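FAQ: What does the model actually see?

It sees only this:
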Amino acid sequence: MTPEFVVSFAKEGIMLTLLISAPMLLLGLIVGLIISIFQAVTSIQEMTLTFIPKILAVFLGLLFFAPWMLEKITSFTNNVITNIPFYIR
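And it is asked to produce this:
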C-alpha cells in the first residue's frame, strides 16, 4: 500500500461519513433555528424546549433517509471487501 492509497482511502471514508451524517445534522440545525426564532419572538427562555422537536426531526429524517444511507454504507463496504486482494499487494 502506498501513502497515496491510504490517504485516498481515508478521504473516501471521511467523505462518506460526512455525506451520511449531513441530512440529520441539517434537520437538527433547521429545527433548532426555527425553535430559537420562536423563543426569541415569544420571549420564552426555556432551554429544554428545543430537545423534543430536534429529537423528533432527526428520528423522522432517519426513517426517511435510512434506505439511502444503508445503500451508501453497503456499497462502500462491498467495494472495500471485493478489493481486499488489490489492497494487500
